[in-house]
Amino acid sequence: SVSVAFREHLRRLGLQDFPCGLGSWNKSRFDAHRSHRRGRPGADQAGQEETMPLDEETPEALMELLRDQHSPWALPPDCSPHDQHLQETAVLAPKLVRGSNIFQLFRSLRIIDKGVEEVDEGLLQLHQLEELILSTNKISRINSANLPRTLKQVLELCCNALADLQDLCASPPPELQHLGLGYNRLCSPSQDKYLTATFWPNLVSLDLSFNNFTDLMGLVSQLSSLQKLRILVLQGNPLALIPTYRGFLVDSLPKLSILDDICIGPDERHQFHGLARQPELIRNEARVVVSIGEIKGVPDPSVQLEVGSKAPVITYSYCVAYEF
């Protein structure tokens, strides 16, 4: 479950271990008795703070251990800037990352390629979560009741096994701006109805790439309700092979700024103007032409036997198969 992966993520960050957390390496900075003595009049007649014990480290030294890429305590390269910030917080204010306090610090959570199959209710502890990235896992269904309502920036589910959005759309995060569903198993027409403003009123960016959407007109009729949509990715779907695919989308969704990672300019808008009112030009079929440039290792069929030759004739047959 995602809760198990989250706990493993916290363990990997080592927020309670050296050089983070509370311990012999920094205890005097957070000792209430010593802090009280430092604040007493006359405790330090020279007007200077007490020197740090020899067996402790300065905050600067501890932070350097985290930031130096050659340090054994440095985070792996795949960790996010938010993970770095959590570790630094654990050095400067370790009490903020103790117990349930840690849940209040997570605004972004990345759990990538950890074999997660279930998004359970454990995520609801993250009351400040705005961005959730669960790419390259094994998630086939998501119950929206287990997603924090605070999600408003990103919900990225790329490279999973999603085939049905019904549970996700039961009560989705209302403020979400980006929904990433690329490289899943979604198809037309059963899933088109879940891609509307009824479920995603504030969606600005939508990634549906490399699924199995085939009904271009049906999908566009649903996407047209997303009034805030500016970025759309549909490449890799069968409908992207339709000859008038791009032009029909550009004209049908006039507020779109980027389609398949390519900006839509005024010239392109003008070029395809009126295409949306000509559905008869949309044909749900595609033609694929395969050319064989060269074949090696087989006899040359152009070599002919002489007329009247009594040499035996050998016939060769070959089968070439293509899988799409």
TrEMBL record:
Keywords: Leucine-rich repeat, Repeat
Region of interest called Disordered, as start-end residue ranges on this chain: 32-54
GO cellular component, one term: cytoplasm
Signal peptide span: none
Keyword Repeat in record: yes
UniProt-recorded name of the protein: LRC43 protein
Database matches in SUPFAM superfamilies: L domain-like (SSF52058)
Keyword Metal-binding: no
Organism: Pedionomus torquatus (Plains-wanderer)
Record-linked PROSITE patterns: LRR
Record-linked InterPro entries: Leu-rich_rpt, LRR_dom_sf
